[in-house]
Amino acid sequence: MTLQEIVRACGGSFGYPSDMETAGICADVGEVKKGSVFIALKDGDDLAVQAVEKGAEAVICERPIAGVRCVIVDSVRHALLALAAYYRKSFPVKLIAVTGSVGKTSVTEMLHNILELSGESIKTEDNCHDETGLSLTLLRLEKQHKTAAVEMGLTAERGISALSAAAQPDAAVITNIGHAHLENYGSQENILKAKLAVLDGAAADAPLILNMDDKLLAGIELHSARKVVYYSMKDKKADVWADSIRTEDERVSFNINYQNERIPVRLNCMGDHNVGNALAAFAAAAAVGIAPEQAKKGLERYVPDGFRQQFIKTAGCRVLADLGNFSPEAVRAAVSIVNKCKTRPGGRRIAVLSDMPSLGKKSAALHRSVGESLERSGIDMLLCIDDRAAGYIQGAVKKGLPEDQARLFSSPEELCAFLKDNVRPEDVVLLKCRREYSPFSMLEALGKP
What we know:
This protein is of the alpha/beta class. It contains 16 helices and 19 strands.
């Protein structure tokens, strides 16, 4: 893009000649090269000055900075999204948007594994599904890219509608409507409305892929001619459905049923919820014309990473690290995986849980409800941190977990010391703890090499 195009696209003010080509837009000083435009997402003069010293042609910011050629905008984040929307129009990529309360990152990763078998593809990185994350993803588009899979989350300042308008999806997926963000939206019905905004920027004929096992999604009436593709783990009336689900050797196998075909799939991960994620990715791929054989191959290439339901063999025990979504649905899904893990003789299943944020008035009840469900999941010991997490213990003890096997810790250091002294090599540990509670220190205490 020319600098003039960038100034116009972001609605900025620039008092210098601007009819020159740029070397692109970047938000990381480390990526600045001669002729690029730096967008100052963090306030402060130092980064802007460093960018200019490294060769930046201009800096997009909200106020003048001495010695810097500034494109002045009202909001840097809004300007970034506007730039991304303008830039995306130059690329005829097939773009699939993924949203939902739980599973959107896994579905996006699975989709990416499928899509890149047809040519170069891009995806949302590092679970960044707000305005900034989506914008930076779109700005990575290049001529060789054929497809894209992007996440859209409710953490976006202006909602999913603004993200969809920028991305212009060719298909959209909604995985489920859970309890995350209840504090801000008040009800699951309101969350559904907010998630449906994923269609706001989509073409009228862009298919919508929905989870038939979610009662709110199954009852949607769109009042339009848009094609809706349903997937299900149990309902044979769905367009895509699974059967013969079985778990062995830390993998889950199943059949995908689609258009009178039965396609066997074996994922490199565990959990029935990952079967649902795979069905969503398969259905989305099919909706944009990808053959079942390619979808199967892509799904079987998928391997969880980034400490999202990732097994780690430590020197002290076996750990399932899951530092992603913290909602009732996500916690139950992670616990269900541990329930299917085989322990060595004398081994225990230990759950290390922090609280679930953003649940509003239902927070205490939902923590207790998740705790009660632990009784059906074979958890032998429950270790919690944060006062809100006490609800897990109340629910678990109510359903029969011995009180001496449930403990609430006041600090990460106290919990780390307990793990180091009490976890045995034959145990399996679920580590589902928010990053502000130092889960990596807990991994070290468990003997991570």
